[in-house]
Specification:
The protein is α+β, with helices and mostly antiparallel strands. The chain has 2 domains: about 1-165, 2-Layer Sandwich (Phosphatidylinositol Phosphate Kinase II Beta), CATH 3.30.800.10; about 170-335, Phosphatidylinositol Phosphate Kinase Iibeta, Chain: A, domain 2 (2-Layer Sandwich), CATH 3.30.810.10. The chain contains 12 helices and 14 strands. It has helices spanning about 1-20, 30-35, 50-60, 65-70, 105-125, 145, 190, 200, 215-235, 265, 290-310, 320-330; strands at about 45, 75, 90, 95-100, 135-140, 155-160, 175-180, 215, 240, 245-250, 270, 275-285, 285-290, 335. The strands form 4 sheets. A 6-stranded antiparallel beta sheet has the order 1-5-6-4-3-2. Strands 7-10-12-11 form a 4-stranded antiparallel beta sheet. Strand 11 (about 270) and strand 12 (about 275-285) form a beta hairpin. It is globular, with a radius of gyration of 20 Å.
Length: about 350
């Protein structure tokens, strides 16, 4: 059943990305009726296609022909990478990841509140470490599958900073860390788990980076300046619960590369001791404090915390407090070298 579901979702995404936005067919009464009874293979379409095309071409300098070529082969499921019930796929060339947004509060926030400011911010801050989202797909019609939450109705396509790992002879030594301030408690993973979340995902709440990023003062100054700017933007959008995705891999491997316009922390910064390279992006900025589900969850968890007394929680804190603790986390994993 799981493989069939993944295969149908994959086909829906693949077909939507191969269709040009201006060639979307009009909905008829019959086609809408048929679409309603879809369980997994729902009809998807690009949302705000022109905004994303401008970001790809004008801001990030991603070649459009190369981008389209990434979707000529069927996309591949990559299993679970998180805890929200999201389904993940990647293109065959590994350059792009596709992540589902199963929660209404997440995709409505991204579509209605976040997208236009994100577009403006990325234009003005081309070296931002916010993950580059290159397309946004959504269901064209109501469907039984989305109503019953059997299949996600929206998906984002984004860069994959692990795109060249498969070409590295040291691929088995690549390490990834999805980092959040560990001082927060995460009861939402246990109290109200998403029905689509695999059990093996809920057993791992967050990563802990036991080592240090060994970089120079100048590199740290640049990193912190960029992250401070990005977090100020996320705070202005009332976003919390985002994470720092850190990649560490052997320095003697493949030469630094990136998708589209390069930047130091996407190419891979060489550690001061010469052993590693580091890549960094900011992920999962879809949880906004002002959305209805976030407000409801806050009430539930605060009620639970009266009894459980587990301390502050990432989704019940303020955007300002989360930003401050996030910056302290970043400073805590850095070791400065001359």
């Amino acid at each position: 059943m799981g493989k069939r579901r993944q295969a149908d979702i994959s086909k829906s995404i693949h077909r939507a990305l191969l269709r040009e936005p201006d060639r979307e067919r009009k909905t008829t009464l019959i086609s809408g009726f048929i679409a309603f009874f879809a369980i997994w293979k729902i009809r998807l379409a690009r949302i705000s296609a022109e905004i994303f095309r401008q970001l790809r071409n004008n801001v990030w300098q991603i070649d459009e022909d190369d981008y389209k070529t990434s979707f000529l082969s069927p996309i591949q499921p990559v299993g679970d990478l998180g805890f929200s019930g999201s389904t993940f796929f990647r293109t065959e060339n590994s350059k792009l990841l596709i992540k589902s947004l199963p929660r209404h509060s997440e995709y409505s926030f991204f579509r209605d509140d976040f997208l236009r400011p994100y577009y403006n911010y990325m234009q003005e801050n081309q070296d931002s470490l916010l993950v580059r989202i290159t397309d946004f797909l959504g269901s064209q019609h109501p469907a039984i599958g989305t109503i019953l939450k059997c299949t996600p109705s929206h998906h984002v396509i984004m860069e994959n900073i692990l795109h060249d790992r498969q070409n590295d002879p040291n691929a088995d030594r690549w390490e990834t860390y999805d980092l959040k301030p560990v001082s927060y408690f995460y009861p939402e993973r246990d109290l109200l788990p998403d029905p689509l979340t695999p059990k093996d995902a809920t057993s791992k709440l967050f990563d802990v980076f036991e080592d240090k990023i060994r970089i120079t003062k100048d590199e740290h100054r640049e990193l912190r300046k960029t992250i401070e700017s990005d977090l100020a933007f996320l705070q202005s959008m009332n976003a919390v619960d985002y994470s720092l995705f850190l990649v560490r891999y052997p320095a003697e491997g493949i030469p630094p590369t990136s998708i589209g316009r390069g930047s130091r922390w996407r190419h891979g910064v060489r550690s001061a001791d010469g052993r590693w390279r580091y890549r960094v992006v900011l992920l999962d900025f879809f949880w906004a404090k002002h959305k209805l589900q976030a407000q409801a969850m806050t009430g539930v968890i605060q009620t639970f915390n009266v009894v459980g007394r587990q301390g502050p929680m990432s989704i019940t804190t303020t955007a300002e407090e989360y930003r401050d603790k996030f910056l302290r986390m970043v400073d805590g994993i850095v070791e400065l070298r001359d």
